[in-house]
Amino acid sequence: MRQVGIFGKRKSGKSALMYALMNHKFMNAAKYSAMEIGGVGKIMLVDTVGVDAESSSSAEKSAESIEVALMLISNESFELELAWLTKLKKRGAAVIAVITQSDKFADGGQSLAAAVKEVSALDTVCVSAKTGAGIDELGNQIILKLSEERRESR
Ligand SMILES: Nc1nc2c(ncn2[C@@H]2O[C@H](COP(=O)(O)OP(=O)(O)O)[C@@H](O)[C@H]2O)c(=O)[nH]1
Ligand SMILES: [Mg+2]
């Protein structure tokens, strides 16, 4: 099972994003969030404890088997998230920076996304689990990363 991990601080919207991805992009989601998507095989979305949780070492442990990591960022203080980006990349995951709860920003999270992109040089997507904005785009990016990963591992 190919694992897509959802990382972020507590209350950043990890669980809400996981359910939004299952309902919107992955309509045929099987039970236990394992699903088959054309060409990329079976995928499992993995929700994690917060990177700011006392037990964040367990998030680090789950990072070991993650192929694509979503690093959630929900506000301007994202130093901890940047440190995690580095950790996740070192463990071999393809990382997508995700600005969450974008409905809370007047500009839909665009300026925060630009700031994150500037320091991380990562692909960045703004999403809202509440309105569904950006969910399809993020789903496409995940599938793209998974197909790239598969090509590289051949
Ligand atoms: N406005 C808004 N609120 C959200 C969104 N996603 C999550 N929330 C709220 O933020 C809080 C934390 O969300 P949750 O998914 O439980 O975060 P987690 O702790 O990272 O799993 C909850 O009260 C959610 O209802 C969103 O896209 N927009
Ligand atoms: Mg949660």
How would you summarize what this structure contains?
The chain is an alpha/beta fold.
Summarize the topology.
Elements: E1 2-7, H1 14-24, E2 34-37, E3 41-47, H2 56-63, E4 66-73, H3 79-90, E5 94-99, H4 110-120, E6 124-126, H5 135-153
Parallel strand pairs: 1-3, 1-4, 4-5, 5-6
Antiparallel strand pairs: 2-3
This protein binds guanosine-5'-diphosphate and magnesium ion (MG).
Could you please describe the fold and organization of this structure?
There is one protein chain. With 154 residues, the protein is an alpha/beta fold. The chain has one domain: 3-Layer(aba) Sandwich (Rossmann fold). 40% of the residues lie in helices and 22% in strands. The protein has five helices and six strands. It has a six-stranded mixed beta sheet with strand order 2-3-1-4-5-6, sandwiched between helices. A hairpin with a 3-residue loop joins β2 and β3. α1 packs across α5. The longest helix has 19 residues. It is globular, with a radius of gyration of 14 Å. The chain starts with a strand and ends with a helix. About 4% of the residues have low confidence. The structure holds guanosine-5'-diphosphate (GDP) and magnesium ion. The site of magnesium ion has 3 residues, from α1.
* Rg for CA atoms: 14 Å
By CATH, the superfamily comes out as P-loop containing nucleotide triphosphate hydrolases
User: What's the rounded overall pLDDT mean?
Assistant: 87
Q: Unreliable stretches, pLDDT < 50, 5 or more residues?
A: 27-32
User: How many strand units?
Assistant: 6
CATH topology: Rossmann fold
Helix content: 25-40%
Tally of individual helices? 5
In percent, how much strand structure appears in the residues?
Answer: 15-25%
Q: What is the 3D shape?
A: globular
| Bound small molecules, deduplicated | guanosine-5'-diphosphate, magnesium ion
Strand order of the largest sheet: 2-3-1-4-5-6
Largest sheet: 6 strands, mixed
Cα(first) to Cα(last) distance is: 17 Å
Query: How many domains, as an integer?
Result: 1
Write the H/E string, N to C.
EHEEHEHEHEH
CATH C-level? Alpha Beta
Going by CATH, the architecture would be 3-Layer(aba) Sandwich
